[in-house]
Structures are given as structure tokens and as C-alpha cells.
Amino acid sequence: MDPLCYRIVVEGEIGPRFERAFDGMEVRAANGETEISGPVVDQPDLHRLLGRVADLGITLRSVTRLDATASDERR
To answer: Does the predicted model carry a pTM greater than 0.90?
Structure first.
């Protein structure tokens, strides 16, 4: 089964130190928020990523599952 792609948006523009916590994901910061997007293998993997957001004390704004068309366009 292919991994699903997700977009996680958090408050604030996180720097390189926090970016390393999301290896394998694309991290883009702009306009006071950061978008973390990429493949998520399964639900436990998604919960692991969201746990990292919480552990780092970053405010979560949204989590969106991207359809295959949207994720292909982002590459």
C-alpha cells in the first residue's frame, strides 16, 4: 500500500533546528506559519508526527490529507 500524503500546518515559522525533527517531510515557512508535508505510511506514523509537534511545543493549526493529484502537483 502506498503512503498517503498529509499537510500539517503549525503556528510560527520554525527554523532549521525544528525542521530536523521532520526528516523526510518538506518544510516551508512563510507568513507566520509553517507547512510540513509529505508521505505518511500509516496512522501510527501520523500520530508520531503530531506527537513531535506537541513535544516541541508548536501550536497545531490544521492537518489535511492530500489526494494523489494534489500530492503529485506539489512534487
So the answer is: no
| Residue-range domain boundaries for the chain | 4-74
Question: In CATH, what class is 4-74?
Answer: alpha beta
Q: How many angstroms separate the CA atoms of 4 and 55, rounded?
A: 23
pLDDT per residue as tens digits for the range 1-23 = 677 999 999 999 998 888 889 98
Distance, CA of 51 to chain centre: 11
C-alpha cell at 2: 502506498
CB 8 within 8 A of CB 51: no
What is the bridge-based pairing of β-strands 4-11 and 26-30?
Answer: unpaired
